């Protein structure tokens, strides 16, 4: 059987490609099956005899028994190469100025990262990325923020769930603690950020009004504005949010793909007006 060879092929596919959000041609590159050399007779466990026959994977599209979707199925051994959506985790991470004047809404600043990788390199986005094995979604959101900006964030409530081509995004409301105080002026500043220029070219703190004034092309993906607007409407203290124990339904949207002329680029899955 060629299961070992098939497994090697699948591993190569996973390492070589990543599903990209909002890319119409997003998918996996199909590499050629790896040639596995036949062991010489002297290398065999039995010490001799003819070389073992070589079985190589050969994939074709087919519907496996009991299923409804076409898959890549090995015609040699029956191995099925499943392609499933990736899970992306991230956050709308907010620093609240502890030195805000009493009696006035506090200053809130949102963490954004300028992407250092495709797709949408050089555009501002939320700290987010693919979830890793062995971590929870909140742990992944905190890790991504630290990797992309150097910020330590604490993910809290689930803010949104977005179904996109090839991936599902889970975004949390996160807090950023700490900062510095200017001894001369008494002004507070958020914690310093640090990027190595790999995943993020730079990172910065922005007010909601700063982001609202950005052109759509300055933002990496539509989900950036979706999530920040939903945070503003439901969790921003500037907008009047108070911890009253109310339950906020996470925003749940499906990106419309391919786009439909004259229609919004998304479909809301639930009615939030209740």
What does this structure look like?
By secondary structure, this protein is of the alpha+beta class. The protein is built from 4 helices and 14 strands. The chain has helices spanning 3-16, 137-149, 208-212, 222-235; strands at 59-62, 71-74, 80-81, 86-96, 108-115, 124-125, 128-130, 153-164, 167-176, 180-181, 188-189, 200-206, 251-255, 266-268. Strands 4, 5, 6, 7, 8, 9, 12, 13 and 14 form a 9-stranded mixed β-sheet that branches. A 3-stranded antiparallel β-sheet has the order 1-2-3, with no helix packed on it. The N and C termini lie far apart (57 Å). The model is unreliable at 12-45 (pLDDT under 50).
What order do the SSEs take from the amino end to the carboxyl end, as H and E?
HEEEEEEEHEEEEEHHEE
Q: Tally the beta strands.
A: 14
> Which structural class fits the helix and strand makeup?
alpha+beta
User: How much of the polypeptide forms β-strand, as a percent range?
Assistant: 25-35%
| Shape field | elongated
Task: Report the end-to-end length measured between terminal Cα atoms.
Answer: 57 Å
- Estimate the mean pLDDT confidence: 84
- Quaternary state, please? single chain
Largest sheet: 9 strands, mixed
The poorly predicted ranges are 12-45
Give the number of helices: 4
Share of helix among residues?
10-25%
Rg value: 24 Å
Task: For the structure shown, list the relevant keywords.
274 residues; alpha+beta; three-stranded antiparallel β-sheet; 14 strands; 17% helix; 27% strand
Write the layout of secondary structure elements.
Elements: H1 3-16, E1 59-62, E2 71-74, E3 80-81, E4 86-96, E5 108-115, E6 124-125, E7 128-130, H2 137-149, E8 153-164, E9 167-176, E10 180-181, E11 188-189, E12 200-206, H3 208-212, H4 222-235, E13 251-255, E14 266-268
Parallel strand pairs: 4-9, 8-13
Antiparallel strand pairs: 1-2, 2-3, 4-5, 4-7, 5-6, 5-12, 8-9, 10-11, 13-14
């Amino acid at each position: 059987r060629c299961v070992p060879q098939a497994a090697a092929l699948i591993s190569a596919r996973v390492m070589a490609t990543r599903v990209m959000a909002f890319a119409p041609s997003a998918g996996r590159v199909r590499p050629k099956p790896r040639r596995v050399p036949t062991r010489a007779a002297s290398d065999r466990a039995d010490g001799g005899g003819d070389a073992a026959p070589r079985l190589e994977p050969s994939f074709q599209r087919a519907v496996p028994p009991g299923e409804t979707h076409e898959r890549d199925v090995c015609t040699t051994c029956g191995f099925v190469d499943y392609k499933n959506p990736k899970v992306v985790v991230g956050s709308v991470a907010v620093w609240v100025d502890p030195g805000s004047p009493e009696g006035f809404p506090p200053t809130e600043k949102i963490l954004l990262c300028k992407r250092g990788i495709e797709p949408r390199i050089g555009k501002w986005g939320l700290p987010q990325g693919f979830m890793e094995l062995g971590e929870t979604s909140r742990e992944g959101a905190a890790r991504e923020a630290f990797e992309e900006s150097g910020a330590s964030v604490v993910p809290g409530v689930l803010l949104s769930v977005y179904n996109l081509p090839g991936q599902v995004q889970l975004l949390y409301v996160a807090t950023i603690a700490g900062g510095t105080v200017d001894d001369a002026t008494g002004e507070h500043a958020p914690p310093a950020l640090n990027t190595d220029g790999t995943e993020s070219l730079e990172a910065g703190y922005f007010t909601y009004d700063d982001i609202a004034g950005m052109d759509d092309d300055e933002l990496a993906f539509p989900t950036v504005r979706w999530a920040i607007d939903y945070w503003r409407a439901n969790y921003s203290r500037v907008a009047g949010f108070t911890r009253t124990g109310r339950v906020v339904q996470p925003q749940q949207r499906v990106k419309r793909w391919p786009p439909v002329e004259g229609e919004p680029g998304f479909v809301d899955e639930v009615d939030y007006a209740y």
